Amino acid sequence: MTTDVWLPFEETDVEGLPAASEAGLTYRYWDGGPDYPADPADCAFYVVPYMKSTDIVVPPMAAMASLRVVQTLTAGIDALEPGLRFLRPGVQLCNARGVHEASTAELALTLILASLRGVPRFVEGQRTQEWHSGFYPALADKSVLVVGYGSIGSAIEDRLAPFECARVARVARTERTTARGVVHSLGELPRLLPEADVVVLSTPLTEATRGLVDADFLARMKDGALLVNVARGPVVDTKALLPELESGRLTAALDVTDPEPLPAGHPLWRSPGVLISPHVGGSSSAFAPRARRLLTAQLRRYVTGEPLSHVVLTTS
């Protein structure tokens, strides 16, 4: 059995890893550089480099004939989907549940508050030395709709709790009940959208959610509502969003866009009422310690034969 573990961190930078000599593992450092650290055919446990493009992280998968585990450092797995067809049956794909919740939820709240309270206008006013006083919308008393109520959606609601929102409604793929109340199905969106002052997208990118926020979705949002996307860019139909922004009927705060990175000259850059951050929801100081703890825990389970956590699929 092959024993290579490809890590995007140096072995010495991850505290608590199973000792290579005792566990019979060989740790190989690879963070997406042009040269592979060893023969991919000998890789048994592949930790996917973080925030690297599909054309970097997928090619070695085609040669990983001995692979048993693929561990992402992202909440979503969409960047790896083109490589799944290369994998032999029985490979477990695990996501990074628990790594990004705090950071992404924190950014979601930042985008909401900055957009509502006029922070982009104040920044521009500081640049031009203009004093933009007046009344601005508060998050207090607003109705918020969270679309995509997994661990990140739940963490967003945790952070909304102190802000005295009038209501937080939750939507996921299937209806269920949580300690906080009902999570509605996607089929309830037509009823829920007209009631929401703020719509937060935190859903994974799947065939069901690609283009979910289309012209019909946007038309159902109430006048003056704010759309916040901390999910994936293609969840939103950019062409449908642009006229809503240009008319001033809706505003938006986007950590992700389609296309991404957003090229110079794209009309989203110039659209009124839009705040854009460069896909930094998970890229904070909170990432590395949580990612390292996850890898330590997963590799300990791996060497002892315990079930891995956060398995999202097993290839067949």
The radius of gyration is 21 Å
Per the principal axes of the C-alpha atoms, what is the gross shape?
elongated
Major pleated sheet = 8 strands, mixed
Distance between the termini: 20 Å
Number of helices: 10
What is the share of helical residues?
A: 25-40%
Order of the strands making up the biggest sheet: 8-9-7-6-10-11-12-13
Could you say which structural class the secondary elements and strand pairing correspond to? Answer: alpha/beta
What is the residue-averaged pLDDT? Answer: 96
Give an overview of the whole structure.
- With 316 residues, this protein is an alpha/beta fold.
- The longest helix is centred in the last third of the chain and has 18 residues, at 287-304.
- Helix 3 crosses helix 5 (151-160).
- Strand 11, helix 8 and strand 12 (251-254) form a beta-alpha-beta unit.
- It contains ten helices and 14 strands.
- An eight-stranded mixed beta sheet has the order 8-9-7-6-10-11-12-13. Strands 2-1-3-4-5-14 form a six-stranded mixed beta sheet, with no helix packed on it.
What descriptive keywords fit this protein?
single chain, 316 residues, alpha/beta, 10 helices, elongated
